[in-house]
Amino acid sequence: MTASLKAGLVGLGSMGRHHARVLAGLDGVELVAVVDPMGDKNGWAQGVPVLSTVEELIALGIDYAVVACPTALHEEVGLKLAEAGICALIEKPVADTVEGARRLVEAFESRGLVAGVGHIERCNPALLSLRTRLAAGELGEVFQVVTRRQGPFPHRIADVGVVKDLATHDIDLTGWVTGQSYVSIAAHTVHKSGRAHEDMVSAVGQLSDGTMVNHLVNWLSPLKERFTSVTGERGTYIADTLTADLTFHSNAAVATEWEALQAFRGVSEGDMIRYAIPKREPLQVEHELFRDAVRGEDRDICTLRDGLRTVEVAAAVLESARTGMTIQTRDSAAHGA
């Protein structure tokens, strides 16, 4: 029987508590300690020791760590883990700057360490099914990807705006489900909540195969929405990642003798299919994939390099909003499936 991996957790906030819960029950893994300078005032540490510093965690001889501290600290914590030869699953976004993300990529890759980014939408059942169907060519040519991600302001966030916190989900999932990269992006942001960072963004982009992309993201809405649609020559897929539902609206192939309808050179409404999908908790799936990758198994995890590209696109979104210009994104040929 394979020996258990020793894991640690850095950060016991609103996301860290969920990581602690999953790690504590994960087969083949022993959660040995948690780091949080604030302690465990909510009782989220699952009964393991709560340490004050990353150095104390490293001294316990762990195999890997989950980094769920504030985004601004990801680089500092990640570099310490890499220097100690410890694998890491870092919450998204991988870092708060492009330069920081690049330094993390170099630190882990140069040491041959397994490292991933917690872009959890990759483990959402609806998007996993959508990606498989797109890869199989079920939609034919893809024309457009549209995402909407909105809801009330999350008081857990203090150090970044809506682009880095929420829009990075949509940037990553769009590239991942289509197997394409962003080549350009144009965006507008607004500041309505009195904070230093933006709280709403609307962006239009283009992927490397010509697919049009639209993202609308905010935390000013009382309506919580997680919507992804992909439209192509055979119809439209709609994924609701709150409920993990995937539906397909097909283009009709029914002939008509109605002259007025024949003259309309669009598409007509066809069948709608709602797929039956097994619905496992995405965070559980994410942890299982990363555990297996640390064991040396070939698993489809979100790599630090994937995370870097997402941070680069997010930076381009903010640059476009600041300058009013359409920004050409770098590394446009590298984001393959």
UniProtKB/TrEMBL annotation:
It holds the Pfam family GFO_IDH_MocA_C3. Residues 129-237 form the GFO/IDH/MocA-like oxidoreductase domain. One of its GO terms (molecular function) is nucleotide binding. Transmembrane segments: none annotated. Residues 6-119 form the Gfo/Idh/MocA-like oxidoreductase N-terminal domain. It comes from the Bacteria. This is Gfo/Idh/MocA family oxidoreductase. It comes from Streptomyces beijiangensis.
